[in-house]
Design goal:
This protein is an alpha+beta fold. The chain has helices at residues 20-27, 41-48; strands at 5-10, 15-17, 34-38.
């Protein structure tokens, strides 16, 4: 199974993360955190750029 890519739109540090542990550090306990996992970095970047698809 391909590895997931995690995108953080609102958190301590925004951007792409390749492990849940790294992503979780940015969003755990952060009020209003927005994050999502994706199958590809391209999909994650599109979501970060404002696409809600």
């Amino acid at each position: 199974m391909p590895k997931k890519v995690y995108a953080v739109r609102v958190g301590r540090s925004c951007g792409l993360f390749t492990s849940w542990a790294d992503c979780e550090k940015q969003v755990a306990g952060f009020p209003g955190a927005r994050y999502k996992s994706f199958a590809t970095a391209q999909e994650a970047l599109a979501w970060l750029a404002g696409s809600d698809a």
